[in-house]
Write a structure and sequence with these properties.
Layout: H1 10-19, E1 31-32, E2 35-36, H2 54-84, H3 88-93, H4 95-113, H5 128-138, H6 141-153, E3 159-166, E4 172-178, E5 187-194, H7 201-204, H8 208-214, H9 221-228
Function: Destroys radicals which are normally produced within the cells and which are toxic to biological systems.
GO cellular component, one term: mitochondrial matrix
EC number: 1.15.1.1
């Protein structure tokens, strides 16, 4: 999956100064010539079955993620146009949309990288330095999995559960975020699990706990370890 760092445009910087509020960091999401783009998957839509159906994967990637891409591009274009007209109030008004759609683009870009079929080393348990860190900070991998599933079940409405690393101490922890709010600041996102209904409902309906259990069978621990070791 191609990945580049979005350099803040003057328009976006103006919006942020006017808004004086944090907005999503978009490092890790895919962009081409300054526009957000839908990243390619490294596996077929049906490759994660039976744990995640091909129908869900196709809709989730090609429709839902594409909506975040489109929304982010529209918001950034609105900021640029508003700045060119000297309308900084309008530019600042786009900050919530940039956070939502930008967060959706970033979160999903990481999510696809977090998944892999068994043929590409998906599932199982982490090893090496990541496994040692999990044991140190959570007690065991099984405890981490149970705590993550409990956090996912506790999300009211839509959101994500993330295993994150403190960039200063290297300590691992578990956090949740509402809607599409991204992981920012001193936390490095390692593994995110999508608790929005569109991620599971066509297959699991109201049995979301089954989805939370199933997704561990397709976690790409190699990708998670790569982020951990940065």
């Amino acid at each position: 999956m191609s990945s580049t760092l979005l350099r803040s445009t003057p328009a976006l910087r103006a919006a942020l100064r006017a808004r004086a509020a944090p907005v999503a960091s978009l490092a890790g999401a895919s962009f081409v010539r300054g526009k957000a783009t839908l990243p390619d998957l490294q596996y077929d839509y049906g490759a994660l079955e039976p744990y995640i159906s091909g129908q869900i994967m196709e809709l989730h990637h090609s429709k839902h993620h594409q909506t975040y891409v489109n929304g982010l591009n529209t918001a950034l274009e609105t900021v640029a146009e508003a700045e060119s007209n000297g309308d900084y109030t309008k530019a600042a008004s786009q900050a919530p949309l940039i956070n939502f759609h930008g967060g959706g683009h970033l979160n999903h870009s990481l999510f696809w990288e977090n998944l892999a079929p068994a043929s590409q080393n998906g599932g199982g348990e982490p090893d090496g330095a990541l496994a040692k860190a999990i044991t140190k900070d959570f007690g065991s991998f099984d405890t981490l999995r149970k705590q993550t599933n409990a956090a996912l079940a506790g999300i009211q409405g839509s959101g994500w559960a993330w295993i994150v690393k403190d960039k200063t101490s290297g300590t691992l922890s578990l956090v949740t975020r509402a809607n599409q709010d991204p992981i920012t600041g001193n936390l490095e996102p390692l593994l995110g699990i999508d608790a929005w209904e569109h991620a599971y409902y066509l297959q699991y309906q109201n049995r979301k706990a089954e989805y939370f259990d199933a997704i561990w069978n397709v976690v790409n621990w190699k990708a998670v370890a790569s982020r951990f070791e940065k």
